[in-house]
Amino acid sequence: KVVCVTGASGYIASWLVKLLLQHGYTVKATVRDPNDPKKTEHLLTLDGAKERLHLLKADLLEEGSFDSVVDGCEGVFHTASPFYHKVTDPQAELIDPAVKGTLNVLRSCAKVQSIKRVVLTSSMVAVAFNGKPLAPDVVIDETWFSNAAVCEKSKLWYMLSKTLAEEDAWKFAKENAIDMVAINPGLVIGPFLQPTLNTSVETVLKLVNGAERFPNITYRLVDVRDVANAHILAFENPSASGRYCLVGRVMHSSEVLKILHELFPDLNLPEKCADDKPFVPIYLVSKERAESLGLNFTPVEVSKERAENLGLNFTPVEVSL
Ligand code: NDP
To answer: Mutation test of ligand 1: which of 9, 12, 118 has the most ligand atoms closer than 8 Å to its C-beta?
Structure first.
């Protein structure tokens, strides 16, 4: 089976390519610069890459750039999208590549017959930013959708880019009868394959190396291997549909700090968060749909042990860190 991964050099996509090759897929992987070894070497050395990985040049903002790439593919995993918080021109640096880029990829998909499903890498930032108050008894689930006006008012440009991109993707997919599934991960952590740091891993690293103080915020954490695995399950399971929130655990940064103290007692970490009065409340994110992704219709007597029968087991945060 032939599939396409856009933005293949990225943190999540590199794991996705690795797992797809492991599963025996032929992968057409797009990068902006196939001649940059920093973006390609870690992919070219993956098991199976020599036989089944094809690196192709494509740019989100170049109309028709993905036409020949997606042609002949059964699945398209659209992960490419800029993920930065510090930008000078949010429209050009984040919103255009996210929104126009997603539509560009989907337009290419609409032109070919081979594609059975598109899996879109969206984000929890397209789910949770709707202005609703968070509290320990609140459970965020896939029915939530971030509100563009809320993101814009607070100048949350990355959040806005992902919200608008997912909104437009659903509209286009419906209008063009594309079978699309969205994966909405929280902050992705865990080992990285690529030589350069991405924003989410950098966030943790800055806390660990003291570049930033532990803030009074909560994190929606998920392991990168679970995220890559969920993409494949969402493609392979014919009954998968709609959106899937992927959050292994919601944690206050003080809890992250506590775990880091336990795991790495030699690190020179602060005793407590920079600002902890009052603590930002913790809340929950539903795992129900994510956990059901790998589910074969399990007999009722086995259903009690559902977790063991699922394709997706959340990696403990302690392992990811
Ligand atoms: P990375 O920064 O590691 O990867 C982003 C990828 O997008 C890179 O491969 C980059 O290509 C590509 N890209 C950016 N702009 C363009 C463009 N104009 N044309 C073509 N490709 C482009 O990020 P992550 O792996 O962390 O993120 C991947 C996806 O997952 C994104 O959609 C992100 O929004 C989403 N996500 C990430 C989370 C996280 O915590 N990491 C959480 C939730 C969602 P190049 O290598 O050429 O720069």
So the answer is: 12
Specify the pTM. Answer: 0.92
- The average pLDDT across 250-262 equals 86
Residue 84 alpha carbon to ligand 1 centre in Å: 9
Decide: 158 and 197 in contact? Cβ < 8 Å. no
Q: How far is CA 36 from CA 44, 79, 285, 287, in A?
A: 12, 19, 38, 38
Please report the ipTM that was assigned to this predicted complex: 0.98
Edge-to-edge strands, sheet with 26-31: 53-57, 26-31, 2-6, 75-78, 117-121, 180-185, 242-246
Q: Give residue-wise pLDDT tens across range 44-84.
A: 999 999 999 999 999 999 999 999 999 999 999 999 999 99
Decide whether any atom of ligand 1 lies within 6 Å of the 40 Cβ: no
Ligand 1: does its nearest atom lie under 6 Å from the Cβ of 80? yes
